[in-house]
Amino acid sequence: MPATSALRRTFAVIAALPLLTLAACSYGSQADKDDTAKVAAGAKKTDGLDSVRIGYFGNLTHATALVGFQKGYFQKELGATKVTPAIFNAGPSEIEALNSGSIDIGWIGPSPAINGYTKSGGSNLKIIGGSASGGVKLVVNPKKIKSLKDVKGKKIATPQLGNTQDVAFLNWAAEQGWKVDAQSGKGDVTVVRTDNKITPDAYKAGSIDGAWVPEPTASKLVAEGGKVLLDEASLWPDKKFVITNIIVRQAFLKEHPKAVEAVLKASVEANKWINANPDEAKAAANKQLGTDSGKELPADVLDPAWKSIQITDDPLAATLDTEAEHAVKAGLLEKPDLKGIYDLTILNKVLKGEGESTVGDAGLGS
């Protein structure tokens, strides 16, 4: 039981390290305001709030938040209530900020949402919307690995023990009939937990034979001569699986529903614009990345990475439940009770108002 407890603690701490970290930003660092985010003349405060604090990562999978700030969607909907961005490196830091009241709403991956909810006994957060699907690939050295069966016996990198991609790879390996000790990473395949920032260098040095990683790390490996052997999307129904959700502090949701509605309206509008204007949206997201991290992505990485990510309002709730099951099967998480993790009431109100189809919570709603 001690080993299981240790694994659970490890999973809770690192389960959602940044999925597409571009550069280290300080905890809760503030992004520079874009000229488009000015308050309209005569605008009134929303719910009487001076500000709404929104957290996200400097990652392409958080494109909705990136574009929302870059194009001024959040500020437009919040009126005279100032929208304040906070950029995080990892899920645990964002959950900590949410729990402490340092942020109100956040864009975040599935693993930290699951862990944040279960560790608090379902009292700290709600998932109130979706944002992105996809963007994860198995990239290999084509000289060493020519087919999926060749992965056996090789060294494959994942971002961290128990993170979303690590769980996905362990589950896929088990489905091939291969045995791997989840904690040590040793077995029929050697899992090498490597920070996304240094994975390309590890690949160039030959210390790993491939990696199951998110974008833009996958495209960075391809730029170094790697080959995409498997797109994780191909393993999911309709090739969709949640990679980014929108969460809110439960107390904020209860006390300031109009502010939550404003943010969700901005999110829906941003997603609609992104999907209608992919090239402009890609440029806008990259510009915000430059603002947040000091460095934009080069075209040979940005272009293929952007193509593999689907922007959606749907939280793809059934896939979140499946991802939790994969973590349980890998021995990294005790079976969680996710009933009540979703509250899509306001999102569906916004979607109806926009003439869009509503979305479901797979029976995991409030």
* Percent in strands: 15-25%
Mean pLDDT: 89
Shape: globular
Derived from helix and strand composition plus strand pairing, the structural class reads: alpha/beta
How do the SSEs run, as a string of H and E?
Answer: HEHHEHEHEEEHEHEHEEHHHHEHH
User: Mind summarizing the main beta sheet?
Assistant: 6 strands, mixed
Radius of gyration: 20 Å
| Low-confidence parts | 1-36
Give me the side-by-side strand order of the main sheet. Answer: 2-1-3-10-4-11
Describe what this molecule looks like in 3D.
- This protein has 14 helices and eleven strands.
- It is globular and about 65 Å long.
- Residues about 1-35 have low confidence and may be disordered.
- The strands form two sheets. The protein has a six-stranded mixed β-sheet, with helices on both faces. Strands 7-6-8-5-9 form a five-stranded mixed β-sheet, with helices on both faces.
- The chain starts with a helix and ends in a 13-residue tail after the last helix.
- α2 (about 65-70) crosses α10, α2 (about 65-70) crosses α11 (about 280-295) and α10 (about 255-275) crosses α14 (about 345-355).
- The chain is an alpha/beta fold and about 375 residues long.
- It has helices at about 1-15, 65-70, 75-80, 90-100, 110-120, 165-175, 200-205, 215-225, 250-255, 255-275, 280-295, 300-305, 315-330, 345-355, and strands spanning about 50-55, 80-90, 105-110, 125-135, 135-140, 155-160, 190-195, 210-215, 225-230, 240-250, 310.
- Helix content is about 40%, strand content about 15%.
